[in-house]
Amino acid sequence: MKNLTVVNNPLVKRDVTILRDKRTESHEFRAALNRVSYTIATEIGKGIELVEYDVETPLEITKGYRLKKQIVLVPVLRAGLSMVSSFLDMIPDAKVGHIGLQRDEKTLEPIDYYYKTPKNLDDSLTILLDPMLATGGSAVASFKYLKERGAQNCVLACLIAAPEGVKKMLDEHPEVPIYTAALDRQLNERGFIMPGLGDAGDRTFGTF
Fold first, then answer.
1. Domains in the chain, please, with CATH?
2. What are the pLDDT digits (tens) for 61-97?
3. One of 17, 42, 107, 207 is an active-site residue; which one?
4. Which of 20, 103, 112, 149 is an active site residue?
5. pLDDT digits (tens, 9 = 90+) for 34-46
6. Angle at 78 between CA 72 and CA 80, to 5 degrees
7. Is 203 annotated in the active site?
């Protein structure tokens, strides 16, 4: 699919298997999630623009590089918080905003309850962090809020995606690149990704 990148890495496939396994304990789940998030951050990093400048080594002056734009990480509460530390390890000078959305279990539509992001989104690269792209409702709503507040250059990072969610994102926000570790088969009647990995937030934080 256009604008969809599935990270094809043997180590990621191994870690996604750990995430899927219902026997995986929360601490093992968090460790695997962090490793996958590092890899996704690195993949997104391939498209980040740089500015060249002179840097002095102990021996001579050479060319160095810094990020051209401010990076803003926006986790979708609460599961998106699980990806923040890995992205901050890779992009330590990034700023962090938050969007709070919860899914109405009857309509499967997102309900917002919190929003706060840094200023100057119009001159930043905004990366939305949400482990599961299921129906696509939360991601679509999140990017709507971000764009209303000036965000123009946006990316979605997720662990697992369903075809239905990818289609909805590409229909509503076709210019937003999607990066994921796995594209799964489908949604079930309750809107959960199949085969999926369960509830990423519950499995990360041990709140079963």
1. 4-205 (3.40.50.2020)
2. 999 999 999 999 999 988 899 999 999 999 999 999 9
3. 107
4. 103
5. 999 999 999 999 9
6. 45
7. no
